[in-house]
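Chapter review: from sequence to fold.
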Amino acid sequence: MEVLNNVKLSVKDLNKSFDGKKVLNNLNFDLLEGEFLSILGPSGCGKTTLLRILIGLETADSGEILKSGQDISGLSSIDRGMGIVFQNYALFPNMTVLDNVKYALTLRKETKKNAEAIALKTIEQVGLTDQMNKRPSQLSGGQQQRVAIARTLATNPDIILLDEPISALDVTNREIMKAELKALQKKFNVTMLFITHDQEEAFFLSDRIMVMDNGNIQQMDTPLNIYQHPANDYVKEFVVDMLDKKYTDLLRYTGRDAYEK
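The token string follows.
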């Protein structure tokens, strides 16, 4: 995918502490228009707190968040022009697929009148037309995830934030959703910020990866450059060595499997 050089989101000197413990330490980075940027790090590194601050669910202690040059730090979530897909999907269990996708549109003046038409088109684009009258409990995990993504895409956000959206899926559905996420980004030409602890997910999906640990950015670069030129021992151990181990384990497994057959 071709990435533009225009800065869509700029984070400057962002800090956050909880109960005296520093969770985000003076973060500075840019998200480019049309980019798929993954924030990669273990649990507790600060990546989810960062996402919650960007969307407006948490407030930073200091720093700025600029979107297309405008400071949005003081705006409500709905006024930031961003959408979010949560790990647990957050679908309404008593609503159909169509009603789930349509719901947020009915709350906005500019989309209320055409809410159903917009929802139907988005549902078609993500390949769920034949499921639109079902409730979430009648869908597979992968289908529920597509509904959550469709609901976000329907509001036409400038940026989509994804909080480990495929980690709850089984292995087969994770692989399917990785491919679908990439295809959807290309189809909708949307800027995406993806939170994950999984190295393979980050490397498969991303134009660039931001590796975090203990509230700090350890390295931010393309997947290839991170793999070939890790910035420090942490990046080497958490990213490069883990990828090498998974690849070695896969070769060992497939080799043994072939031998036994």
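Two observations follow directly from the output. The radius of gyration is 19 Å. Residues 1-78+198-261 form a domain with the Rossmann fold fold (CATH 3.40.50.300).
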